[in-house]
């Protein structure tokens, strides 16, 4: 693996990001990857980019985007006023899965959370992703909560 570069995503990266989100068993049914990025993704990107507690990351190797994830830094009153880091929308380019990029991306993301003063890093994962569950277990994450969602 050559050197990875982590950077804040720009609007020019949206096509690559959405394509990675759509290129998986669950994402293929909920994302709209197309040559022209839908306006809904552009609006969401603008909101994420304007929020200082959000970091939409792309991971580059050479001139290619090989991964993405979103970090959210959540201030809170519980746990003595602790700040949490939330890792979401983790994807790796399909041709690079299995190359240990996920481990490198999580090490980077956890370091970013520490640097921002987080005392806890959390994530959610779909119940239909047993391989991801094993990966998170291996990284030391514990399945400590049950999550609920309500579609609106």
UniProtKB/TrEMBL annotation:
List the EC numbers from the record.
Answer: 2.3.-.-
Q: Which CDD domains match?
A: NAT_SF (cd04301)
Q: Which UniProt keywords apply?
A: Acyltransferase, Transferase
Q: Does the keyword Acyltransferase apply?
A: yes
Q: SUPFAM superfamilies recorded for this chain?
A: Acyl-CoA N-acyltransferases (Nat)
MF terms (GO), sorted A to Z = acyltransferase activity
> InterPro entries this protein is in?
Acyl_CoA_acyltransferase, Bact_Acetyltransf, GNAT_dom
- Per the record's keyword annotation, is Acyltransferase included, yes or no? yes
What are the residue boundaries of the N-acetyltransferase domain, all occurrences included? 4-152
The protein's matches in PANTHER family, at most eight in alphabetical order, are given as: AMINOALKYLPHOSPHONATE N-ACETYLTRANSFERASE-RELATED-RELATED
| Name of this protein | GNAT family N-acetyltransferase
